[in-house]
Amino acid sequence: MELSQGCLSATGLQPHLHSYFHLLHDDTPVQALRLVDVTQHSAPQDPLDDFSMDLEGDPGAALAQGTYSFSHDQLGDFLFFMTTHAAGRYRIRIQQARAQGAQAMGR
User: Fold this and answer.
1) Is residue 16 classed as helix, strand or coil in its secondary structure?
2) What is the pTM of this model?
3) Domain count, the chain
4) Region 79-101 average pLDDT
């Protein structure tokens, strides 16, 4: 599985709001989580890009906090640490070095 986490940004995720990340087990989708919000936590001049993704799934199929493999039809495959916030509500927080030149472009 190719992991492409470094290519994510809050701005890049905005067009994908309400699309689905598929939770994988042995490369087989087992649950779909809908992207319901993306929040930028860092300023454009900060050396780290810090943002969160809020996901929503089936409240009857609760997931524990932990690291999961995900696949998205347009964005690719990812490995994320996810926390639980309520029944069927989850958050993924991304903190990564900004892409070279991203600070100058205000991303």
Assistant:
1) helix
2) 0.82
3) 1
4) 88
